[in-house]
Structure formats: C-alpha cells, structure tokens
Amino acid sequence: MPNAEAQQCSNATLTGAYGFLDSHTVVPAGTPFAALGRWNFDGKGNFTNTLTINDNGTVTHVNDSGLYTVDIIRNSLVVRFTLRHCIAMSF
Asked: In the chain, which ranges are E strands?
C-alpha cells in the first residue's frame, strides 16, 4: 500500500457492512469448522456483528458489538477489534 493511500485510512473511512465466510479443518483434531458473519462499522470506532459458527456440528449464533481502531503499521492496514463480550483481536 503506497504511503499516500495508507495516510487516508482511518476509523472514519471504515463504514458500512462487510460479510465473510471462513471454513477450515481444526488441527490436530481434524474436525470441520465454519463461520459466517456480518460486521457493521459506523465510521466512529463502533461496530456490531452477527456470526453463525459451526464447530464440528455444534452451531452457535453470536451477536456482539465493540470498538475498532484503524492504524497503519509499516505501510500495512491494521484493524484492531475489542469485543464487548469476548477477547480482543487484530486482523
């Protein structure tokens, strides 16, 4: 990401709804895992999410909210999440 583009990324530029699908095999158990979700960002550092998780046949529905921060580290976009009901994570 060129520096000029990186400088334009902020909490305000992350707005709207984004969906995702993740599926993989859990190692070393060899069991299937899948997650389908939607994240909604308000451009002010707040988000809500809705997730459906299938972990080896056990389905869980999760609704959560929290805070996010957009940073540029070594010319890479980093979004940090702090969930209200779970642990903090970064992508």
From this structure: 15-26, 31-42, 46-55, 58-73, 76-83, 88-90
Count the Cβ atoms, other than its own, within 10 Å of residue 68.
20
Sorted by where each begins, the domain ranges of the chain are: 3-90
CA–CA dist 15, 52 (Å, integer): 22
Gap between the Cα atoms of 22 and 53, Å rounded: 9
Q: What is the pTM of this model?
A: 0.72
User: Nearest-CA neighbor of 64 among 42, 46, 49, 82?
Assistant: 49
Q: What tens digit of pLDDT does each residue of 73-88 get?
A: 877 888 888 877 654 4
Element (DSSP H or E) covering residue 3: helix 3-7
Farthest CA pair distance, the chain: 46
